[in-house]
Records
---
Amino acid sequence: MKNRLSKTPKRQSRQRRRTKNTHQKLLEAARAVFAEKGMDLARIDEISERADVGKGTFYYHYKSKSQLIQELIKSILSELVATIEDKCRDASDIQSLLYSLIGAHIEFFSKCWEDFVLYFQSRSDLILQDCYIGIETPFAEYLEFIEDLLESVIKHKLPQPALRRIACAITGFVSGYYSFAAIGSQDENIDEAFASLQGAMAASLGRFIQEALPSAETSGNFCK
Amino acid sequence: MKNRLSKTPKRQSRQRRRTKNTHQKLLEAARAVFAEKGMDLARIDEISERADVGKGTFYYHYKSKSQLIQELIKSILSELVATIEDKCRDASDIQSLLYSLIGAHIEFFSKCWEDFVLYFQSRSDLILQDCYIGIETPFAEYLEFIEDLLESVIKHKLPQPALRRIACAITGFVSGYYSFAAIGSQDENIDEAFASLQGAMAASLGRFIQEALPSAETSGNFCK
DNA sequence: GTCGAAACTGACGATAATGTCAATATCGAC
DNA sequence: GTCGATATTGACATTATCGTCAGTTTCGAC
């Protein structure tokens, strides 16, 4: 037994890299196809075709499309969370946190259109009765992460539902604007327009929080 | 020729109603199935099954699923526009317009969950490369309608892109919040929470518009 | 260089969904 | 009551997609 195990004690580098590469290629291809046809209508055939591997290879790496989606969403959201974490590290008041939070989303969405599409598609999927399994958790974690950030800069204790509402408002506003801008702005550069609104959005959300908080206390003076 | 035409000069009431009814039943069934499985994964079989008619009947009324979707979206959005029109009729300043605009969306979304799902799904579909044809126009008209409303209460002339951005922000904020709330708020009543935020959203968007406008002029005093 | 394990392949059977169509039912007009 | 037009039906041919599997290739260890 031990002998058998010792036959492959550590994995080999070349083969290991090749495998990793295939895995990655499939993920990339899936991103592209998903952004074209949508998650539901994307065919495994096309994904493996575009990754330039046989269809069997797909099934060697992933149990099913559902599992691929799960992994993809998880990876996308954890990247988004990482971007947020990075950008918001030293925000200490609510105004600068909001600004950075929005900035992180702009940066993330602008960097890769496919990721935004996936982000939006899966949110859209989440409101269905029969949705892909396993994509709820990453979204919940993403919201929770934002809530933690908010909590750390808001002085007084807030009830959880209020925090959640604020987080929903922020993420909803940002992604909602972006998606509408994508379909609505015929010619102009979406990302540029988006970036130019960063300040306005932050101010606006600041105001939202101020108004939405049940407690009368005003820790910030968003209204100059 | 004229004789032939005169054979069916006006349609008969009973048969007419029956047909209309079937048409409506199919539309209703589609709404329900779409909200369960999503537009892509909804099967014609299931729609006609749920409408309690033969599959052939579906194809008698609609050329294809694509056409059904087109009609459905069109009807939903024109209903939304009608709601907006009704609620915003006598809003004369920007603050009250925003308030009514949000109110109209809340009312509309709350009234029928299926409609919200369809609204959101089709927006999600619109950002894909290969999306259903014919759903772009209703959305464009919806945005344009909101722009017209905005224009009528904003004193000074705004460039079209700025108006569009504001419209995107409003609709994005409202629907974005609602969708996140739907997946994020585990227990509490979404509609109630949403309604309680109506004022905060309006104030917030007022602030957004104020900040986003390039011109320095301040017609409104949103900051008390 | 040869052996075994891991990675890869694409043709194939099974399944599922689409859209068609010839036959049938319903209805109002005359 | 019968005729033509309109509406409805579900079995069917067609097409698309899935997931499997027996066989092949790649690679590192010895």
Note: The longest helix of chain B spans residues 13-37.
---
Amino acid sequence: MPQASTYHHGDLRAACLRAARELLEEDGSAALSMRAVARRAGVSPTAPYRHFPDREALVSAVAAGGYRELAGHLAAAHPEPATPDELAAVAVAYVRFALDHPALFRAMFAEPCDPGNEERVAATAAVSEYVRGIVRRAYPDAAPDALSTAVWALVHGLAFLHLDGKLDASTADAVADRVRAAVLALLGAAPAPR
Amino acid sequence: MPQASTYHHGDLRAACLRAARELLEEDGSAALSMRAVARRAGVSPTAPYRHFPDREALVSAVAAGGYRELAGHLAAAHPEPATPDELAAVAVAYVRFALDHPALFRAMFAEPCDPGNEERVAATAAVSEYVRGIVRRAYPDAAPDALSTAVWALVHGLAFLHLDGKLDASTADAVADRVRAAVLALLGAAPAPR
DNA sequence: CCTTCTATGTATGCACTGCTCACATCCTCG
DNA sequence: CGAGGATGTGAGCAGTGCATACATAGAAGG
């Protein structure tokens, strides 16, 4: 625990990430400015630049955290899904996450994932691997790449269409039903699970 | 054609949209500022505000144009798709459009489609209806809402995953093959076309 | 034809932003 | 204990969105 020494913050990097995350949740991505983060962390406007070379880097770090959080959220929905129903439950959790954290979710996908940011690349790769693993386990006889790509794309697209108001997202149940139905429809085309 | 009268531009609104579109294609969404648009249109920094109440409105108008362009692009891929293969061709065109105009595509979906902007809402509704109509025609016996939602989400998700570099988009052929395979897989689960 | 009204463009200015650079402070380690 | 590097501060620049007051021109009506 950092003592109340005025000058050095103690863990400014973490404080910046937390502040950025809060700003994102409260007022959306437009409110996520370096200076606002600094204000919220109770620090001078340029202090965050000691930990993040530029705004891009801050956003990428927040996004990376978002990926980790998403992975945890999915795992919580079902640790090792194997049946189509279990897989659909994970899909519902994915869309739920997007709807619960719209600004964060957009930050995670709005800008191109610059290959320069290793943390971010690694985090997205982890999600990708997670989905692939699930599909491989559930459908060992299918072409895993094609099927997991299709599943991820379907779920990802559903998340965005709900976010954009193209699909009614007013009740959680309706969203869940829609996502489940779409995923099960896609999986119906795959070889039946063993 | 407007004469070279210095003061009044002639059709500044259209010029702004064109300039904004160019800036988007050239340097991405960050370069799309009111002032940059004004500069490119050869007009004072605040002139565009006569035609767009704020930046949001300008972006929404550009996005609306993008939706119309996308609709045209899809129709060009196949005017009235009925078979799964034809439908897949339209899907490929959708993803192609996203990859050819990444910044525009992101502008179309990055921010929540505020229900206030009628032009934008109408434009997205048109695309939605277009997809629905295709699916209804191709699969008259399926639940049209569920199936068209699933198809759109799949294709939309594929577009974003390619945009974000999660799927290799280096060659157009590879992208097309992947999209086709995913769409045909999904459609395999639907009642066969008559 | 001349006035007036309104749409459209201009000029100025404020608050804010990302970012740079010079400086201050503190912790660590030789 | 003293040097040096890490971390924070401060002032300042260029650029932004936008509001407000002003200028201009083309159309409408006498």
Note: The CA atoms of residues 153 and 159 of chain B lie 10 Å apart.
